[in-house]
Structure formats: structure tokens, C-alpha cells
Amino acid sequence: MRILVVEDDPSISELICMNLEAAGYTPTAVFDGIEAQCLLRSGKADDAALALVDVMLPGRDGFALISDFLKVQIPVIFLTAKADVASKVHGLKAGAEDYIVKPFEVLELLVRIEKVLKRTGRGRTQICIRDVKIHLREHKVTKGGIPVALKPMEYELLVTLARGRNIAFSREELLNRVWGLDYMGETRTVDVHVGQLRRKLDFYDIIRTVPKMGYRLED
Length: 219
Prior knowledge:
CATH class of the largest domain: Alpha Beta
CATH topology of the largest domain: Rossmann fold
Strand order of the largest sheet: 2-1-3-4-5
């Protein structure tokens, strides 16, 4: 799934693209507003599912570009240092699906991308990890085409780790994301469920333990 990254700072663009690739997306980097406009008007971006757009771009700023994205029906998330309320309101009223202020956490960005893709009908229907497929619509998992019986929390934990591929999660963060903020159990619960996923999916070398922290799914 292709995502346009319209960001003039090379280091930020590289960081975003690297994490998008790790999460299974195909990023296309664009470094100024005129280049982005030409790409959109040429039809070469029509297959993009989403665009991450900085507001303060050389040539043509993000607010001025929003109409070009809307014409080709590419949803936009603004990523910008402009944190004032007036800019946020302007961006959202102009048609952006979301507005994220820099600096931001990569995991938060990935979650918001998933939310926008789902809301706009462009969300992924499957996540593939080697011979394992997570069928998101059907809420099931197969390994080599054979269904794998996962308990509800095992499934939710797997999806959380898979969507944040190559990102390290603490046990506390996984508890909050999968079991909810009101869950009163211990972090040992996470260890038990990770153990079950490793056994059922043969993910011993894929779900890695991060010493003194938690877990990371690598592929």
C-alpha cells in the first residue's frame, strides 16, 4: 500500500519512510509543494492510499495543496510544527483527515494512519508475516492456509505487535493497548500470551524479547 510523504526535511522524511516500510507500507518521498502538485496532476500518484503532508513546504504549502489531493481522492494527514489552534482548525476544515503536531511518536503516527485508512475504506484486509496471515475483516489467523485457533486477547496482541512491526513495546503499553487502561492484572499476563503466540505460530524468532522492557515483532 503506497503512502506519499510530502516533507522537505530529509532527516524527517527518511525517518517516516523507514518506519512506514517497516510497517509494511510503500512510501514515496516528495520534498516540496510544486513537486507534489506536479505528481498529483500527472496522475502518477493515483494509486496512493494516503498522503502525509507537511504544512510549511517550499514552493507551495500544505494548505494550498489540499485541494489537489482532494481532487484525486487521496486522504491527507498533516504532519507539522504549526501547533496553534487556528492552523489545526484551518487544516481540518480544508479537508484533512487528521492533524499531527511535530514532534510525534512513530507508533502514534502508525495508529492514526490505520484509523484514517479504515475510516476512508482503504484499510488493509490482511497482514502477512511469513506463512502467517492475519485476516482483519474475518478476525482470524491462518498459518500455511490452515486456521489457527487464537483466544480473543491472543489475537488482539498479535494484531498490535504486527501493526507496530519492528517497534519495541513495553509490557505496560501492551497491557493498556490490548487489555485496556482499566485492566487490573499483572504484566505477567503479557508474557503468558506472548508465549502462546510463539508456540501456536512458531514465532520464536519473530516475536523478540526486549530485555528489561517488553517485546518487538520482527520480520
